[in-house]
Amino acid sequence: MADLESIQQKIIAFRNERDWAQFHDPKNLAEALSIEAGELLENFLWKTTEHSRNLSPEELNTVNEELADIFIFLTYLSE
Amino acid sequence: MADLESIQQKIIAFRNERDWAQFHDPKNLAEALSIEAGELLENFLWKTTEHSRNLSPEELNTVNEELADIFIFLTYLSE
Amino acid sequence: MADLESIQQKIIAFRNERDWAQFHDPKNLAEALSIEAGELLENFLWKTTEHSRNLSPEELNTVNEELADIFIFLTYLSE
Amino acid sequence: MADLESIQQKIIAFRNERDWAQFHDPKNLAEALSIEAGELLENFLWKTTEHSRNLSPEELNTVNEELADIFIFLTYLSE
Fold first, then answer.
1. Is C39 close to B41, i.e. CB distance below 8 A?
2. Which residue of A27, A54, C2, D32 has the smallest Cβ count within 10 Å?
């Protein structure tokens, strides 16, 4: 299992190198997180709950990318 | 800063004690996360971005509770 | 079936009487609509699709209130 | 201004011709509406409220498409 603290530090360092903090007010970050949550949900739309428990490797990969995006915005918001 | 791994382990242990995993299919968890993201966003609705950067202690407290809820569902989904 | 145009005209008239248009920029209205969509979805969380097709009168009433809220913000945004 | 009732009747007729009602349980429709609301909001992410009041014709076109999608799912849910 990955070390979440070191991942969070990399996410913040990545942002600071690009000087993005100036754009990252909480209102826009909360919008971004909500949008990403919608993209996550889209992976399960019209699917049964059984299907959602048995995703293909490709589906799982897409879901994990959305979870990573949500974690990134959660990290920005928690700072 | 809290140790996120130990928090995640506690979240999962809390769930397992209550035998909730049977209800926690990814489709419903993604719905829950999306709903919580909406509740987070509600804290910034009609506010300026300036205001969102300068929340009162009470506002910050409510925001942090929503962030914790999102982290919990993200933990369930990442398992 | 209700006359949607006359309902929309009443929604806009209601807003104009209160001079709310100044607060109703599309960014905040889109946030509001997204928040209401989350509240609508909350009525179906953890429920089966079968249950969602067979709501009790009370559940149906709450759902209809959320649909009305979404229609109001959709009306503001469409203007 | 378009006649919303006749638009709604066309939306329902379009669905019935394709026999889609069997897939359109309220739980999934509420998910779809929430996802579309996120796509709408994406058009305003990182933009100022001033910008959101002064969209370019292309931006306005994309926004109107999202509003139409939301209206379609709202119509299905209201039936």
1. no
2. C2
